[in-house]
Design brief:
Arc Repressor Mutant, subunit A; globular; 65% helix; mainly alpha; 3 strands
């Protein structure tokens, strides 16, 4: 496969894409390695942290946020409710719908997981130069835009 330079002529887009994917994957693996063995899986932890931060959510809202089918999300919230980390409650506006909320135990697990990940990342960022921190700040804006696109 021939790699063509980007429109700015700096480097091939395919090469840059591969490097970004590899870097994001490595950071993701490091975050995962900071979690103790036996903790919730990635999907369940992501939903739990979201519920803890954003409050009650419908199955549809959770599915759309994670870009998964309602059936897949149903399995995830079932794991959380079975573990006592989330509860189902009727929607006060539309009693036909169910909203999921984090329990006190679920909130504690989510906060601890987030604190461990943030502690590791903050220590890594603290070791960077001012110029590297500025570059990382600009790159984070671009990465968010890529993730939302």
């Amino acid at each position: 496969m021939t790699q063509k330079p980007s429109s700015s002529g700096t480097r091939p887009l395919e090469e840059l894409g591969a490097e970004v994917r590899a870097a994001v994957a490595r950071v993701y693996r490091r975050f995962r390695s900071e979690r103790p063995a036996g903790e919730l899986g990635d999907a369940a932890m992501s939903v739990l942290v979201y519920l803890e931060r954003q409050g009650p959510q419908s199955l549809t809202a959770l599915s759309e946020r994670d870009r998964v089918t309602p059936g897949t999300m149903s399995q995830t919230v079932n794991r959380l409710t079975s573990a006592g980390y989330a509860v189902r409650n009727p929607d006060p506006v539309d009693r036909r719908r169910v909203l999921f909320s984090a329990t006190d135990a679920g909130s504690a697990v989510a906060k601890e997981s987030r604190a461990r990940a943030e502690s590791w990342l903050n220590a890594q960022i603290a070791a960077l130069t001012d110029e590297e921190r500025e570059l990382l700040s600009r790159a984070s804006v671009v990465l968010k835009r890529l993730a939302d696109g």
